[in-house]
Amino acid sequence: MKQGVFARIAGFAHRRKWLALILWVAVMGGAWTVASVAGDDYRNDFSLPGTESQQAADLLAEHGAARAGDTVEIVLHDDGGLRQPGVQERVKNMLGNVGRLPKVGQVHSPYDGEGAISKDGTIGYATVMLDVPSDDMPKADTQRIFDTAQQVEGDGLQAELGGDAARLLGEGGTGAAEGTGLLAALVILVLMFGTVIAAGLPIIIALFAVGSTVGIIVVASHVFTIADWTPPVMILVGLGVGIDYALLIFARYRAELVRGTEPERATVNAMDAAGRSVFFAGCTVILALLGLVALGLGSLQGMALSVALTVLVTMLAALTLLPALLGIFGRRFARQFTQRAERRQAKGKAAEGTAWRRLAAVVQRRPLAALLTAGVLLGALVFPAFGMRLGFSDAGSDAPDTTSRQAYDLLSEGFGPGFNGPLLVVTDGGSGGAPQAAATAARALSGTPGVRAAADPMPTPDGKAATVLVFPSSAPQDKETSDLVGTLRHEVLPKLSAQNGTQYLVGGATAASEDYSGKVADRLPLFMAIVVGLSVLLLMAVFRSVLIPLKAALLNLLSIGVALGAMKLVFQDGWFGVEPGPIEAYLPVMVFAIVFGLSMDYEIFLISRIHEEWTRSKDDPSHAVREGLAHTGSVITAAGAIMIVIFGAFMLSPQRLLQQTGFGMAVAIFVDAVIIRCLIVPAAMELMGHRAWWLPAPLARLLPKVELEKGA
User: Fold this and answer.
1) Which of 113, 177, 502, 704 has the most CB atoms around its CB within 10 Å?
2) SS (H, E, C) 10-56
3) How remote is the C-alpha of 299 from its chain's centroid?
């Protein structure tokens, strides 16, 4: 029988097992040696060419008002009043100490002018001008500012630190989440295989792949724009797919050993069958991730390429490192698995897969009922996704015990909820000059519904442009603030512009969040068309079918819709005690790409085995479905359970982005692995019957022929 390329790779890695292992150790060790020397240079890029907020930022830079550094606020609260002589002296001494700290340029005291102390005198803030942008501010230097500010506390005086740099103080690493997920995954694998060594192999594969890729990305961050939140997402996806791919191959390997196949031949056979499925499953994930590049959204592109590289390296590790490890432990596994199967048979237990075969038979008796019941249930869970509001979380979504959240709440109490997210109106030109046009805008904006106050105009250094800070009556994350941005842009400011010929642009962080969300929504159809279209074509070539790829795409979209709906209920509506706020603007497309690819993994795992059974009989599609589920049901549910615990563990992260990502993916994988693959797919395949494998002759000639079965 002619061996396929995956069989030849497996045979070589199995025979040269120590060489393969040494090479992988060298790759990971080399990557981290270079990464340790070079360090990282992660950069967040939220630029949005063509949007109004970006035009406002570019205009300020053109007139000499480009951002040199950011600010943090030292927020002070004393029920007895901040103007008490003793309190003033303590605060001024503290601010003097802050002014001498590293990365601090200037400090503006709340007593230096008007407006920095609330009307009742109990809440005020000092503005600390940093020498660097918040993204480049070392956490240790921010901690020094916080510690120095806290020294003033006592006798009823409270000091908190606000601003983007301060939010980092409340964030921790993802180590606890990763450790919890891996421990839970190990428990599931031990229960499945009955031995710690066997259970450890998929985890070893995942760690080698993820470790090597993260080291490479650390170095690549010096050349490409890669956001600082990319590595946790890489780890999240890499651990999941790494364990999944190794598990699929290892489960097939175990089945070969139980049948009495010699270990090396069992490795080759497993790789020649399951290895093909892993390869094409990995390709679908990579295709889905690369679709994010079409969005053209700064940091999202760097994340997509980084995670795609993670999946590629993970796939290579499963196809090369795993056969080497099987060569090292093969004889031991042969004894353990054979003895376990003999003990199971001696106790009169049913053969493995019997329960899944029965489940398939039950579904096949009432396929339409099973399909409609599951479809209606999942459809109801998709519905909330249509009310999803995108944006960026601010300190108002931080944990209540963090200093950034307490500063946020104090500023809202003392100066109004819109104080934490002012809009920035930039004026350029005009018959009377930009400052005069800005003053006109400030007067008009002060009387606009939804505006609490408009500050006095501030001219740029060259005097040719000016800015007006507009404080909404609502919080930055409220829908009313989003509506206000639209009102100013489309109603209020265009009228002023028509009167005096001035260009008015609405910018600032809150407006930029609206622009980012709009950009994502505008480009989403193109992104979905690319991802779904390429995946359908790939599956058509693999399975020689039209209906199966279309069914797979539809069901994947269903699982993604359920995940987004659940995210909306929990994180936007605040179910289960979660702090409510918008869904991170780029998260839906990121979850779409990753989950769509991972869902295709399970589709390929299941359908490839059904296809294998179908090619043997050709006359009993129902039997092929039952046997396909019998051989893969336990593997898919175990792989899904591992994905769920790894993704779900990231709910332990203090970062809201990772919480939302982990939760959404865990829900999607649960729906896909349990409801869709084990109920809906068998029902749909039963209803399609022989038609499931129909492919028009003209299309068959155009598509390349790809075989999944071994020996092809």
Assistant:
1) 177
2) HHHHHHCHHHHHHHHHHHHHHHHHHHHHHCCCCCCCCCCCCCHHHHH
3) 12
Helix, strand, coil percentages in the chain from 3-state DSSP, rounded to 5: 70, 10, 20
pLDDT at position 570:
93
Q: Taking the chain, what is the end-to-end CA distance rounded to the nearest angstrom?
A: 9
- 3-state SS of 269-325? HHHHHHHHHHHHHHHHHHHHHHHHHHHCCHHHHHHHHHHHHHHHHHHHHHHHHHHHH
Q: Read off the tokens for 658.
A: 């990772």
- What is the dihedral sign for C-alpha 330, 336, 340, 343? positive
Task: Answer for the pair 90, 157: CB distance below 8 angstroms, yes or no.
Answer: yes
CA nearest to 7, candidates 287, 348, 272: 272
Q: What predicted TM-score, i.e. pTM, was given to this entire model? A: 0.82
SS3 for 59-118, per residue? Answer: HHHHCCCCCCCCEEEEEEEECCCCCCHHHHHHHHHHHHHHHCCCCEEEEECCCCCCCCEC
Secondary element (H or E) of residue 129:
strand 123-130
For residue 88, give every residue at least 6 positions away whose Cβ sits within 8 Å of its Cβ, in sequence order, or none. 82, 111
**What are the structure tokens assigned to 340, written together?**
């376990």
Torsion of CA 306, 308, 309, 313, to 10 degrees: 140
Q: Which amino acid is at 520?
A: V
- For the stretch 655-697, pLDDT in tens is 788 889 889 999 999 999 889 988 899 999 999 988 988 989 8
706: left (phi over 0), alpha (psi -120 to 50) or beta: beta
CA 259, CA 249: separation in Å to the nearest integer?
16
| SS3 category, 130 | strand
**Residue 382's pLDDT is what?**
93
CB 291 within 8 A of CB 534: yes
Q: What is the pLDDT at residue 233? A: 84
